[in-house]
Fold this protein.
Amino acid sequence: MRSFPLPIALTARLSPVVVLAVAGWALTSGPFAAAPDAEPQAQEKTENKSASAPSTSAASKTYSNAPAPCGSIAGKTVTSLVPGAKAAGKEIPSTDSKLRRTCSWNALKGYDYRWLDVSFEIKESDEAAQKSFDERVEDKSGGGDVPGLGDAGYSVVNLTTEDKQETREGVVVARVSNALVVVTYNGSDFESKQAPSSDEINKGAIKAAKEAVAALEDGQKA
C-alpha cells in the first residue's frame, strides 16, 4: 500500500486598633477611681479569634486535579471511533499535569484516518472556567449547544481542504464546575480524498465528550 501524508495535529487585617481615652488624673489615680474595665480585653480576644479563623467566603474548587485522560474513554469507544488504534492511547506531555492532561489516539486503517484527542483542564474557579469556555465558543463560532453535557456544552464541526484532501474536524467543549473537557475528533479518506460526514464526526466527538465528563465527575474531587 502506498503511503499517504497524514494531516498535521491541531493544537491570591489588621485588627482594628482600639484606642482608649484617659478620663483624667483624679479619676484614674484618686480614691474614686473606677475599677479597670475588662471589656476592651474581651473585645481584643474576640477580634484575634476572628482574625485567626479560616475564611468561609473563599470560593471553593470542585476539582483540584486533572484525571488520567487515557482511561476516560471506554476501549470499545476508542476502537469504534478510531479503528486500528490501541485502546490505551498516548498521553501528551504537559507542563503541569495537575492542571492539564491530554490523551491522543490516531490510526490509519486502509485509507481511512482518524484522530481523537481528549483533554482535561482545571481552572481556579467556576468563573474562570466559564470565561475560558466562552472564549473557546467565540473562537470556534458556527456550532451549537450540547444539552445535558456538564454545566455547559458546545459542539462545532468544520471542513478543511489541503492539496485536494478533505479533513473534517469536530470540537466539543464542556464545562463542569471549575473544569473544562475538550474533545477533538477528525478524519480523512486518503483514497477518495473526501472526509467523513459532519454527522459522523459530530456524533463521535459528542460520544467521547460524554464519557470524558462522566469520568471527571466520577473521579477525584478536591
In short: Residues 58 and 65 are 19 Å apart (CA to CA). Residues 198-218 form the longest helix (21 residues). The beta strands are 90-92, 100-109, 112-122, 144-145, 152-162, 165-176, 179-189. The first strand starts at residue 90 and ends at 92.
